[in-house]
Specification:
The structure holds 2 protein chains of 2 kinds. By secondary structure, chain A is mainly β. Chain A is about 5% helix and about 55% strand. The longest helix of chain B has about 50 residues. In chain B, about 45% of the residues are buried. The chains are: A mainly beta, B alpha+beta. The interface between A and B is large, with 36 and 39 residues.
């Protein structure tokens, strides 16, 4: 067996028992800290890493329009996975980092992946100045002193046939998901700490297949950490981040299990006030499927949220937006039509 | 017709079962020794391959320091930060008890998929356990066995690991090897992102090294394996003499059968076909038996080979054999090819024989004096070729070619030499019986000459290799005394401990001499650089081959370099040539010293210069001068004060004993192959005498008729055999001396890089002569017994049947 396959099992699974939810995220907590409902998030500290928690990610998705008139999607993600709680110096660090980056066009989907160990400087998140990095990929703060470090950042990544450098400037406040940042993930109470910055305006340049394109658009940033975000019977999730044309935003997800699944959503007003909606308020229905790299995934979704008179349908910019990484999933830009119009990103795992 | 023809041909073997057995045995033995050597070499090479493949050195480009020194970990991070997909590897050696372990530290997270030969996440071994202290050493089951009871990190078994090698996390390896923040090399993933800044900009001091097609290890050990191969070939050649003589006899004896078969209408083509098929079947059967036997021999020899490879080169080879199809294929092929080659001339003769040619089975043995001279001329030509190769050839292969030509030439000359010796004997002898004895021996010579040639080869090889080994031993022992003058050798475990031990010893001994060293890559090969203190110990004892008068003064001033003989020979270094060291320092070569048993190049500089040029040099070892009687006491005190493990404090006697043990084991294989070759030769003589015994009746009957008793005749037969062996031994002595000279002055220099003075050991030859005579007597015993038991009627019949 190839070491890397084993590594995959080790990386996100501190236990070899596969099948504990997607990528082992439903497994045992074992000494790791667990998100608590009544603990308020504190910034800028909570922008940084939480090594006491088993899993954490800093996640940017951007819907872009090129100077050439084409639509593009960009993804920048840094995952942290702890083999044991806490941090130790040098190579002893139990923190393993993984970066995913992608650039999607209507006809192509390029993705790249980086892995690295904590403790030796190859990958990690520093607070002042704020920077999340792995190898030559980075999410670095450009914020002026005193401002929230995430109010202005630059993301950069490069893969085999793509690269990008994008400046992200926040046009609205940070948004706490769930109950003031405590985001419940199952009926059994599994939860994560979760906040977003959905108001980024983007300018920058992408390079795709040796062609430089100037782009502008919108980006969404998520930072989430937990030790057991999934219940054992949850097999994957469908996650949605929508920018509507009127400036409102929607974050919604469905965690799939053997029964009806668990849905949750946060409606975000144009000025950044979050309105968490009760579990089950959002309903999501796959309407069309597509076979990509041996996986059958929904590529057209119908989302309804009666409380907000929402009834929309998504269509993927590129149905082939499969992240062919060690932990593989579908992640790509979508167009939204129906009661509300806009653009957004969909992530689907566990297919 | 074909079936009847085959039956008729095969009936020969039924009537001559011993001849048949000899043919099979000769072929099987020849194949066996050859296959044994092939199996051993194959095992060793596979092991080097595994060692080289374990972290993909054979498949991936690597970044290294041009001089072989380690790379700072920060440089690794810099490269990653620039987008280069590189993965660090730290390699080094660590001793656990008496076991030397090659530690390979890898980063399983960034290790390119192409690199991982061994499953880092084996058997429930979590990444967490692997990377967090105490970590895990992944080793083969055999290595784990050897490490049992040692204070190693926990072991995990993976039999894909080469022997003596442990894979562990890079972080764990840094602490085991006391190399924090250092890596040996960086593996380059095969597909790098485009648009990354060029290496020359980011890491100008690193060079890209292409995947190692051949590891340093396999290059170093090449000569050793070539040595073995040469021996295997010699054994095979000796074996082929048996085959050749057995086949020759069989074909000649079957001439009447052949004539009859052809007269009965069997077409020539059918006959040849039958004979070829017969030979093919025979050689395949014997080849199969031979290869099987070869595996047996190899499995007996392998532990010694493994031990000497470990001792000489630090090369780890498992002590067990695996069955390799290539060995079987090659063994069978060489058995068949050898048989057909031996039979070719016979088949040709049958093909060209007139249909009704007189069937004279004895004709072949009555080779003319002219034939002998022709053969001798061939022999002389080969000797001349050997001389020319020695004079103008270069390289190990040329050395062995010269050896081969010399041996074969000597063998071809042998019949003429023996014939001359026998003539001399005849001339010197008085009395009818003595005259007849010599004449009859000469008459028998052509029939025995092949076997005697085989004996000559075996004896010469024995005498030559024996002389070489003994010369080496004598030189080696003397050299050990020079090289190891200090009474005590101490290895510390860390730089901090090293300093403390040094200070502690300084007040309790006559001198504490640092034995510090660094590894570098110079002249395209790994080179060890040692630093020595300015001390009388070196000035008085160091085994210099040549040196400038002020060599030690210049070393002390940091104004000169010494090189070991093998490096100097390989790189053609002469006194005074500039040697380029680290940091652009260039110093002249002021001396060359002998350094037996070490395959690697080595330089010596003053210890101050070493630490200045190579700040990372290992500073852990000391040689201590102290009155011999105080050694045990000092050893005990060292042990008590610093809790140094026993193997870290070694007295002079133990080091010498250890070195000698390695030496002995290195030549154990040579000795074993020698004895086996001699055995094959003895069997060759036995086979020839046996097959001749039947046909000798015609010569013995007249002698018997004139009054010699059968008992007397039998005794004379034995005496004849002994005389021939003795003469052959006489001829073998100069050949053996020439062989020894070529081994010492040509082959050793090419193979190991050192030239040894030759010493002669006549007593050994006497022993060998006795051995040869004894085996010749033994070989003649059975035919002689048969002769004694002949019925007079059988002898009388000779006259009745006389044609």
């Amino acid at each position: 067996m190839n070491a890397r396959i084993v590594l995959l099992a080790l990386l996100l699974l501190a236990t070899p028992a596969l099948g504990q939810g997607f990528a082992g995220l439903g497994s045992d907590v074992r000494g790791f800290a667990v998100p608590q409902p009544d603990v308020a998030l504190v910034f800028p500290q909570d922008h940084g890493a939480h090594p006491q928690y088993r899993i954490e990610w800093w996640y940017v998705t951007a819907n872009l329009t090129g100077a050439d008139g084409q639509e593009y999607g960009a993804q920048w993600t840094l995952f942290r996975s702890a083999l044991a709680p806490g941090e130790k110096p040098g190579w002893q660090s139990p923190q393993v980092w993984m970066g995913h980056a992608a650039l999607t066009t209507a006809s192509a989907h390029h993705s790249g992946e980086r892995v690295g160990r904590g403790g030796v400087g190859q990958a990690g998140v520093s607070l002042s100045p704020f920077a999340a990095t792995i190898d030559d990929w980075s999410l670095t703060s450009r914020a002026s002193a005193g401002a929230d470090p995430l109010s202005a950042v630059t993301i950069a990544a490069a893969g085999r046939r793509f690269s990008y450098t994008l400046d992200l400037d926040a046009k609205g406040p940070l948004v706490l998901q769930g109950d003031r940042g405590y985001s419940v993930k199952s009926a059994h109470g599994q939860a994560s700490d979760y906040y977003s910055q959905p108001f980024y305006a983007v300018t920058g340049t992408i390079r795709i297949e040796d062609r430089d394109v100037a782009v502008t658009g919108q980006a969404w940033f998520d930072h989430e950490w937990s030790s057991q975000p999934l219940a054992a019977d949850q097999t994957g999730w469908d996650w949605f981040s929508f920018h509507f044309e009127d400036g409102e935003k929607l974050m919604g997800f469905r965690l799939r299990d053997s029964a009806a699944g668990f849905t949750s959503a946060t409606w975000i007003s144009a000025d950044g006030r979050p309105e968490p909606l009760p579990p089950g308020a959002l309903s999501v229905t796959p309407e069309a499927w597509h076979d990509v790299k041996g996986h059958r995934v929904p590529v057209q979704w119908r989302l309804t949220l009666p409380a907000k008179h929402l009834d929309v349908t998504t269509s993927a910019l590129n149905e082939e937006a499969w992240m062919d990484t060690q932990v593989a999933y579908w992640e790509g830009p979508v167009r939204i039509t129906g009661s509300h119009r806009g653009r957004g990103y969909v992530e689907m795992t566990g297919y | 017709m074909l079936v009847h023809g085959l039956t008729a041909l095969l009936s020969h073997w039924r009537r001559h079962p011993l001849q048949f057995a000899m043919l099979l045995l000769g072929l099987a033995l020849a194949t066996a020794l050859w296959s044994a050597v092939q199996a051993i070499n194959g095992e060793a090479r596979a092991s080097y391959q595994r060692a080289a493949a374990v972290v993909g050195q054979d498949r991936l480009d690597q970044l290294v320091h041009a001089d072989g020194s380690r790379i700072a970990q920060t440089e690794y991070i810099t490269l990653r930060k620039a987008g280069w997909l590189v993965s660090p590897v730290l390699e080094g050696e660590k001793r656990y008890g008496g076991e030397r372990l090659r530690i390979l530290g890898v980063d399983p997270v960034t290790l390119p998929a192409e690199a991982a030969e061994v499953n880092v996440g084996a058997a429930g071994l979590g990444l967490a356990r692997f990377i967090t202290p105490p970590g895990v050493l992944i080793v083969s089951a055999a290595t784990a066995q050897r490490l049992q009871g040692e204070e190693t990190p926990p072991l995990a078994i993976d039999d894909a690991m080469p022997p003596g090698t442990a894979m562990t996390d890079i972080g764990i390896s840094q602490s085991l090897l006391e190399a924090p923040g250092e890596v040996s090399r960086l593996l380059l993933a095969p597909r790098q992102p485009p648009d990354v800044r060029p290496l020359a900009e980011i890491a100008p001091d690193l060079v890209k090294r292409a995947p190692a097609v051949e590891s340093d290890l396999s290059r170093l050990t090449d000569s050793f394996h070539l040595n073995l191969t040469a021996f295997g070939f010699l054994a095979f050649a000796v074996g082929l003499f048996i085959v050749h003589s057995a086949i020759g006899l069989a074909f000649e004896q079957r001439r009447p059968t052949v004539r009859t078969l052809r007269a009965l209408g069997l077409p020539l083509r059918g006959l040849i076909l039958l004979m070829v098929v017969e030979l093919l079947v025979l050689s395949l059967a014997a080849g199969l038996a031979g290869v099987a036997l070869g595996y047996g021999v190899a499995s007996l020899l392998l532990p010694d080979v493994a031990a000497s490879l470990r001792g000489l080169y630090g090369a780890e080879v498992p002590g067990t054999l695996s069955i390799r199809p290539s060995v079987w294929g090659l063994g069978l092929a060489i058995a068949v090819a050898g048989t057909l080659a031996s039979a070719a001339s016979r088949l040709w003769r049958i093909a060209t024989m007139p249909l009704l040619a007189p069937a004279r089975p004895r004709a072949w043995s009555l080779a003319s004096e002219r034939g002998l001279r022709l053969q001798a001329a061939g022999g002389l030509t080969l000797l001349a070729v050997a001389l020319l190769i020695v004079r103008f050839g270069a390289g190990l292969v040329a050395g062995f070619a010269a050896l081969g030509a010399m041996l074969l030439g000597a063998a071809l000359l042998l019949p003429l030499v023996l014939s001359l010796l026998l003539k001399l004997g005849q001339r010197l002898s008085k009395g009818v019986v003595a005259q007849w004895f010599w004449a009859d021996t000469r008459q028998q010579l052509p029939g025995l000459s092949l076997a005697l040639m085989a004996l000559l080869l075996a004896l010469a090889a024995n005498a030559g290799v024996g002389t070489m080994v003994q010369s080496f031993r004598l030189t080696f022992i003397g050299w050990l005394d020079q090289r190891l003058p200090s009474e005590l050798y101490v290895s510390t475990r860390s730089n901090a401990e090293s300093q403390k031990v040094h200070d502690w010893l300084a007040t309790r001994s006559d001198a504490v001499l640092p034995v510090w060293n660094a590894e570098s890559r110079m002249f395209g090969e790994p080179v060890q650089i040692y630093g020595v203190a300015d001390h009388a110990t070196y000035r008085q004892h160091w085994p210099m081959l040549e040196a400038t008068p002020d060599a030690w003064d210049r070393i002390a001033r940091g104004d000169g370099v010494l090189a070991n003989e093998q490096l100097a020979r390989r790189q053609h270094l002469q006194l005074g040539v500039p040697i380029i060291l680290e940091q652009g320092r260039v110093l002249p070569l002021v001396g060359i010293y002998s350094d037996y048993g070490n395959p690697r190049g080595q330089l010596i500089v003053g210890v101050g210069l070493l630490t200045q040029l190579y700040p990372d040099a290992s500073r852990l070892r000391y040689a201590v001068r102290v009155a011999p009687e105080r050694v045990p006491q000092l050893m005990a005190a060292l042990h008590d004060t610093f809790d140094l493990p026993a193997e870290n404090v070694i007295d002079q006697a133990s080091v010498k004993a250890f070195s000698l043990r390695i030496f002995e084991r290195t030549f154990a294989v040579t000795a074993a192959l020698n004895v086996l070759t001699l055995g094959v030769a003895a069997i060759a003589i036995f086979a020839s005498l046996l097959t001749l015994s039947d046909m000798r009746l015609a010569q013995l009957a007249p002698a018997w008729a004139t009054g010699l008793t059968l008992r007397r005749l039998a005794l004379l037969e034995i005496l004849r055999s002994a005389a021939l062996a003795c003469f052959t031994m006489l001829a073998a002595v100069p050949v053996g001396l020439a062989l020894a000279w070529m081994l010492l002055a040509v082959v050793n220099v090419e193979a190991f890089g050192w030239r040894l003075p030759m010493h002669v050991f006549p007593l050994d030859w006497l022993r060998l002569c006795l051995l040869a005579v004894a085996s010749a007597i033994l070989a003649a015993l059975l035919p002689a017994l048969w002769l004694m038991r002949r019925q007079p009627a059988e002898l009388v019949k000779v006259f009745a049947n006389e044609r």
